[in-house]
Structure formats: C-alpha cells, structure tokens
C-alpha cells in the first residue's frame, strides 16, 4: 500500500476524530452527556428561551402564521415575525426523534456547526490538504473565550444561518460548475430565512464579487443571467420572511443606522478577535499577509470572505450592531489564515513534509487548544427541575387564558423562560418590587411587565402597526394584583443575594393566604402557586 | 475499445476496477472537472459506472451512520442507544435522505465528501422551507417530517435517472 493512499485514510480518520472532539468540547459536557433532558438544559440567557418557546409554539400550532397568544400579550392576530427555520427544523426533528423541542433546537446548533466546519474544510482543501488540516484546530476556538457565549446565551438562529451562508459561499466558489448557481440561490435564500443578517452578508459578498469581476472584465452576460436566476430563487425561498423583514424588522433598525455602537442588543458579551492569545493573533496576521503577498492562486473565495467578514465585524462603529453578533463565529472565517500561516512557514523551511506530519501537527495543536477550550460545565443553566415543575403545572392545570402573575423568581431577567408556562406572562417589575421591600410595605398595586415581543397586526393588507407603539401602558405599569387568578412565587432562598426578596415573597404570599378565596394549589421546595377563586375581591388588606 | 469516458472515469476511480490495496475512498475523493462528459450521459458504461458508484456510496453512508451512532454513544454516554439511534436517524432523514440523491447531478465534479456535506445542507433546507410554506396550507408538521425528506430523495433520484440513465 503506497503512503498516498494511507495518508488519505488517515486524513479522513483524523477528520472524523476532529469532529468528535468538536462535539465533545461544544455539546457533550454542556448537555451533561445526554440528548434528552427533563427540562431545558444548558440554557444560560433569555434569548435561548425566546427561540425555544417560539419553536415550541410552532409545534403547538402546527404552523407559524401568527404569534401564539401567550407570547403576544394575549392577542391572537399578531403577525409571526421571528425567522422560522430553527423552529421548523427543531419541530421536524422532534417528531422524528421523539426528543423534546427544547433539546432538538439546541442540538441543531451543533449539527449546523458540524456542517459549517465541513464546508470550511472543503473550501480550504481546495487550496491544499495540508492547509486544510492545519486550519482545523483553530475552529475549536468557537467554543473558547467570548465566542462560546453566542451559543450558550442563545444566539441560535445565527448558527443555523451561518451554515446556509457558508453553503452559499461554497456554491459561489463553484460558480463555473454546471447549475451551481441554483444552489447559490437556494442556500442564500435559506440563510436569509434563518437569520436575515447572514443573508445580507452573503448577498453583499456576491455583489462585491460581481463588481470585481466586472472591473476585471471577467463577468459575462451568461454570468449575469446566472446571478439573476440565483437571486430570483433566493427571493422565492425567503419571500414571506422578506416581507416580514421589511415591514417589521427594518423600521426598528433604521434609527440605529450610522450611529456608533459597542453594545449588542440584550447586553451580550462582546466577542473580539483580540480576545484570543497574542501568539495566535500573530499567526493569523502572518496568514493574512502571506495570503495577500505569497499565495499565487487567489481564486479560492474563502480567504476573501474571511477578510470581508472581519471588516464587517467592525461595522458596529457605523451602527450595524449585528456585526457584533457576527464576531461570535470569527474562528470559522479566520481558520484558513491560521492554516496558511503555519503551512507557509513550514514550506519556507524546505523540510520534507507530507500528510502524516500535517495530521500529527494538527493533532498536537488540537491537544494544546483543548486545555483552554474545554469547559467542565456542571450547571444546568437557568432552569431547574423545581422551576420546570411549576411551569408545567401552570401549563397543564390552569385554564388557557387564565391571568397569571409571577412574583420574584431568580430567573426574572430571563423573561422568556416563563413562556414555558404557556400563559400570558405577567411578571412583577423588579425595581418597583424592591422599592416596596425597602419601604417595608405591602400593596394591592405593583408595577408589572407583560411579556411580549413585537406586536404587529394588519390594519389593512399593507398597513401593519405595532401595538407596543399604540398603548404601551397596557403592558407595563401598575396592576391590581387582586385581579389575577394565579400567583407564582419563588420560596427557596438559594443564596444571600436573593434572601430579602424571597423573604418578602413569603410574607406577601402569607398575606394573600389570609384571605378565604386564596388557596395554595401547588408547591415544591422552590415554587408555590396560589389560586385566587374570586378575582377582583380584596386580597391583601 | 474503451470509451473516452471510461478512461476518464477510471482516473476518477468511479469504475469497479480496483487494484490491490487501492482505496475506493481515495479514488472517489479526487474529482476531475470533466464538464463535457455530460454529453455521453446515455452511454451504457457510464450508467454502469454511476450505478456502481451509487451502490458503493450507499455503503459509505451506512458506515457513516454507524460511526455517528457509536460516536454519539461515546459523547452522550448517559443516553440510551434507542434515543441516539432515533436522533441520528432523524438527522440523516432530514439531511442526507432528502438532499444527497440530487447531488449525483454533480458526481463527476464533486467528490463524495463534498456531495454528502452539501447534500446534507441542501436536504435540511429543502425539508424545512417546504414544511414552512406547506404549513400555511394546513399541512401538519408531523406529516411533513416523515414524508417530505423521502419525497425529495425520490424527486432527486428521478432527476438523476432521467439525466444519466434514461436512453
């Protein structure tokens, strides 16, 4: 057996092992080495619950035309506005696998990343297989530093879209291949449908590619026709969501355009390429410089795309705050430069080098990276079995439109988590609640916040209006707690920081229970749920 | 006399001729860019070659599924084999079953790894976007989950049949 054949075998074996390592570092620990969980596991921020409850609502409704009432302050005519791909993919897999939607939506994030890694590998491999192998370790950094927070804090649509965006890039790279433009259009449309931003990034790159080809007189009429067909396919695939994007998402963005921002909506950590080790930054720089100066064949689009995305990630300074989100995936786009840097330096030494050496070196770098990429995650995240049991009780035992008021819970800031109760979520306004605690008073009226997102409804076919702008006081402000039918309290002071608020919860709960019409209907060590059998009647004094 | 296609297909390793110690995986992963070969689409030797390729690659997909099964059992060792098998089956159903067959359209230009990767992404896209738009018409998602991926697999296979096998 000649070594070339053996090298190829080894390459595939190494690739398989690498993908295993990739999943182990990303998902295995995070999921506590299980695929099925008793409750949403490894969720660390409200956005994760936002996507999860949207996906669950899609499964509940069997479609996604309007937002389900409990996510829309009780309204049933609110136009469904979230990108649908993650919800539909997770619902389909839920039916096929028997897993809950809260498990499948998270699992897909990692499967999409696996596909993204493979596409990156295939693209780099067109340069040469040494560079491809040596690029692989850098991809592990997606689970390191602030980059990982994109996953655990729930920026999930973005990972689904990245897979389709990279597939579109791959198709563009194969533009000369028969009918590849059909794939380009489809993947581009899917990227937009998954998360509009990635659709826009790839459309911008295609436009740039066209301009460069036009200037260098390499863009034929036939190419123009292909791009036009491609664009038409993409527009058809994403058509309905494009309308939603224009009517619902764009109005809120325009005001931010061309305004300096260093914050990602929701207060997420800001990832930066400068988060990584300076030695790696130098290697990346070497890779970029060598690509620009030394690599003769510059037809491969991946390095150009890497530079393009790197530039985009700094457009937050002119108002594109979503550029900050794109930074979470920088290791994917820049890995090629890591490979170019190392392999070109090796070539400069004129040493005899073959596939086996590249595999060994890549494996060693992977092992080196594991030490700072590995997370021993012992936390289930925000949710726990007691909270989940309480939410499940509300979902199963209360009437559909029953008014429920959630007093202080430790996950109050992750408001979307309450939507697992599948009732309109009225939560206490924490600032007002703390003010009452400080004054040592019990009141009949507290400020509340009604959980809802955008509330666009159709006044006519083309006149869409957001109810948030019409009557915001309906959703935030003082509320008479005696009007509610159910009350949920956190009753276990898990740490000193929440002790006073939980104690206040317990006292307020006792006040309510002093009234004949209020009874406790559920409790566990963390949650107590009361039922008010005569809403409207005095319940405090 | 061997046809021009047969010679070129040999270069790609897409024929059944395998020398001792030669890797089929190695052969099929070295694509050449023979766009002109489409003109010989009805040649019987080509059909035989593609049939052989399909048979071999069906085997590879089985092996990959088995590797995934074992790999997932190692990574998610607290999970039952049944749940892992259903999950891997579901992922393959939505991605590979739906999207891989149509990728034979480019079997001369793309190697197996390229076709299964991009075919997988294509399958996910096709299954999802179709389920999304059909849901507006009242088609249930459970039905879509079970029927759409094989439907796309069949449509892809029919296209390949008419493109490469039909005289």
Question: Any chance you could write out the topology, listing elements then pairs?
Answer:
The complex is a heterodimer of chains A (541) and B (167).
Chain A: H1 3-28, H2 46-61, H3 85-97, H4 101-125, H5 129-139, H6 149-152, H7 156-173, H8 180-194, H9 196-215, H10 221-237, H11 239-254, H12 278-293, H13 301-312, H14 322-326, H15 330-348, H16 355-373, H17 385-397, E1 404-406, E2 425-428, H18 430-439, E3 445-450, E4 456-458, E5 464-466, H19 467-470, E6 476-480, E7 486-490, H20 499-513, E8 518-523, E9 527-532
Parallel strand pairs in A: 1-2, 1-7
Antiparallel strand pairs in A: 2-3, 3-6, 4-5, 7-9, 8-9
Helix pairs in contact in A: 1-4, 1-5, 1-16, 2-3, 2-4, 3-4, 4-5, 4-7, 4-15, 5-15, 5-16, 7-8, 7-9, 8-9, 8-10, 12-15, 13-15
Chain B: H1 4-12, H2 24-28, H3 44-75, H4 81-99, H5 112-136, H6 141-165
Explain what this protein looks like in three dimensions.
The complex is a heterodimer of chains A (541) and B (167). Chain A has helices at residues 3-28, 46-61, 85-97, 101-125, 129-139, 149-152, 156-173, 180-194, 196-215, 221-237, 239-254, 278-293, 301-312, 322-326, 330-348, 355-373, 385-397, 430-439, 467-470, 499-513, and strands spanning 404-406, 425-428, 445-450, 456-458, 464-466, 476-480, 486-490, 518-523, 527-532. Chain A is an alpha+beta fold and 541 residues long. In chain A, 54% of the residues lie in helices and 8% in strands. In chain A, helix 2 crosses helix 4 (101-125), helix 7 runs parallel beside helix 9 and helix 12 packs across helix 15 (330-348). In chain A, the strands form two sheets. In chain A, strands 6-3-2-1-7-9-8 form a seven-stranded mixed β-sheet, sandwiched between helices. A two-stranded antiparallel sheet of chain A has the order 4-5. Chain B is mainly α and 167 residues long. In chain B, helix 5 (112-136) crosses helix 6 (141-165). The interface between A and B is large, with 62 and 55 residues.
């Amino acid at each position: 057996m000649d070594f070339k054949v053996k090298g190829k075998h080894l390459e595939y074996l190494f690739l398989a092992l690498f993908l295993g390592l990739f999943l182990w570092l990303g998902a295995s620990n995070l999921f506590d080495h299980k695929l099925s969980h008793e409750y949403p596991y490894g969720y660390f921020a409200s956005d994760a619950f936002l996507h999860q409850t949207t996906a669950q609502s899609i499964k509940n409704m069997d479609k996604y035309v309007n937002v389900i009432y409990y996510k829309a302050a009780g309204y049933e005519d609110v136009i469904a506005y979230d990108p649908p791909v993650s919800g539909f993919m997770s619902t389909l897999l839920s039916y096929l696998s028997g897993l809950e939607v809260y498990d499948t939506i998270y699992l897909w994030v990692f499967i999409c990343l696996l596909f993204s890694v493979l596409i990156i590998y295939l693209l780099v491999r067109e340069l040469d297989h040494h560079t491809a192998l040596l690029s692989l370790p850098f991809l592990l950094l997606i689970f390191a530093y602030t980059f990982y927070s994109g996953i655990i804090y729930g920026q999930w649509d973005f990972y689904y879209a990245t897979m389709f965006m990279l597939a579109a890039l791959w198709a563009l790279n194969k533009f000369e291949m028969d009918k590849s433009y059909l794939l380009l259009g489809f993947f581009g449309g899917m990227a937009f449908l998954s998360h509009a931003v990635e659709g826009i990034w790839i459309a911008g790159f295609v436009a740039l590619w066209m301009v460069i080809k036009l200037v260098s007189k390499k863009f034929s009429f036939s190419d123009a026709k292909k791009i036009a067909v491609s664009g038409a396919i993409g527009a058809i695939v994403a058509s309905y969501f494009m309308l939603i994007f224009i009517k619902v998402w764009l109005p809120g963005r325009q005001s931010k355009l061309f305004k300096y921002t260093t914050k990602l909506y929701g207060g997420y950590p800001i990832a930066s390429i400068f988060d990584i080790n300076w030695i790696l930054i130098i290697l990346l720089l070497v890779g970029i410089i060598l690509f620009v100066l030394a690599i003769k064949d510059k037809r491969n689009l991946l390095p150009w795309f890497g530079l393009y995305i790197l530039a985009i990630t700094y457009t937050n300074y002119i108002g594109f705050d979503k550029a900050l989100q794109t930074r979470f995936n920088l290791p994917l786009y820049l890995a090629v430069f890591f490979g170019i840097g190392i392999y070109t330096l090796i070539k400069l030494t004129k040493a005899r080098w073959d596939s086996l050496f590249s595999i060994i070196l890549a494996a060693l770098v992977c092992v080196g990276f594991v030490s700072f990429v590995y997370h021993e995650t012992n936390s289930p995240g925000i949710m726990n079995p007691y909270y989940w049991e309480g939410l499940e009780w509300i979902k199963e035992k209360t009437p559909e439109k029953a008014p429920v008021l959630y007093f202080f819970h430790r996950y109050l800031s992750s408001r979307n988590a309450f939507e697992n109760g599948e009732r309109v979520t009225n939560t206490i306004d924490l600032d007002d609640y703390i003010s009452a605690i400080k004054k040592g008073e019990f009141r009949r009226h507290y400020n509340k916040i009604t959980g809802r997102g955008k509330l666009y409804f159709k006044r006519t076919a083309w006149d869409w209006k957001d109810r948030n702008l019409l009557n915001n006081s309906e959703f935030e402000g003082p509320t008479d707690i005696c009007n509610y039918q159910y009350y949920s309290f956190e009753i276990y002071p898990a740490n000193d920081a929440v002790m006073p608020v939980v104690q206040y919860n317990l006292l307020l709960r006792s006040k309510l229970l002093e009234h004949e019409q209020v009874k406790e209907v559920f409790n566990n060590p963390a949650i107590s749920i009361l039922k008010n059998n005569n809403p409207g009647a005095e319940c405090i004094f | 006399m061997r046809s021009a296609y047969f010679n070129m297909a040999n270069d790609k390793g897409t024929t059944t001729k395998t020398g001792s110690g030669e890797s089929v995986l190695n052969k099929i992963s070295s694509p050449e860019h023979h766009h002109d070969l489409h003109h010989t689409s009805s040649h019987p030797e080509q059909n035989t070659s593609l049939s052989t390729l399909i048979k071999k690659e069906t085997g590879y997909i089985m092996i990959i599924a088995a590797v995934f099964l074992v790999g997932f059992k190692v990574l998610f060792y607290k999970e039952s084999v049944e749940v892992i098998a259903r999950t891997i089956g579901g992922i393959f159903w939505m991605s590979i079953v739906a999207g891989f067959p149509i990728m034979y359209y480019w079997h001369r230009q793309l190697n197996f790894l390229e076709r299964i990767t991009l075919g997988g992404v294509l399958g996910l896209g096709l299954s999802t976007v179709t389920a999304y738009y059909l849901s507006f018409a009242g088609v249930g998602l459970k039905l879509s989950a079970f029927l759409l991926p094989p439907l796309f697999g069949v449509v892809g296979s029919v296209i390949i049949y008419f493109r490469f096998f039909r005289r």
